[in-house]
Specification:
With 222 residues, the protein is of the alpha/beta class.
Length: 222
Amino acid sequence: MLVDDQAATRAGFMMMLALADDIRVTMQASNGAMALEQLRASRNHLPDVILMDVRMPVMDGIEATGRITREFPEIKVILLTTYDQDDYALAGVDHGAVGFLLKDATPERLCADVHAAYRDGAVFVPRIQRLFLDKQRRDLANMSERDAMRERFLMLTRREFEVARLIAEGLENTDIAKTMVLEVSSVRKMVSRILPKLGVHDRTQIAVAWYKARMDDTSISA
C-alpha cells in the first residue's frame, strides 16, 4: 500500500515497484485517515507492507502508523522520510514503524527494503539509524543495567526476539532454522541484526544478556 498526499510521488513509487515481479501495489491513499478507512474496509485483503509518507493533511504518517500497527499488527509500515525529518522518523519507531526509507531511494533499494520489511527485518537508512541508536543510549543511561537490557530485547522484532530466546536455550543456527521453519541464511542475518541492537558481540553474550535481563517470562507480540 502506498500512502502519500502527492499523486505524482505515488505514481513514481508504482513504477519503481513494478520492477519486482513479486511486489504488487493493491491500495493507495492520500492521507493516514484514508489509509485506515481502506484497511478497515478490506480486512480480508490487507497489504503486507505499507510505504507511509510522514507529512500529510488530515492525519499524518506518524499517527497513522500508530493506529495501523495497533489495529493491524501483521502489517509492516515503512516511513518515507527526507533528511529534514529526523524527529518525525524517530517518533515513528515509538508508533510501530519497522524502518525508514529516503524518498530519493533507487528502485533497487526501494524493492529490497520492501522485501526486507516483509521478511520481518528492520529497514533503516544508516544516518537515521545512528540517530535512533544515540537516542536509545540517552534513554537507557537513566535505567538500571537489567532494565536497560530488557528494553533492548523488547525492541527486537517478533522473529528476532524468538531467535534470541532459542539462542539462550542453546540452539545452534541449524536447529533454530528447523524450529522456526526458516532458511539457515535467514537465521544468520537475524543474528547479525540482533547483535548491534543488543550491544553485544557474539551469540554467547546474547544468551548471557537474556538471563541477566530475566527474559524467560517475557513475550513479544510485534
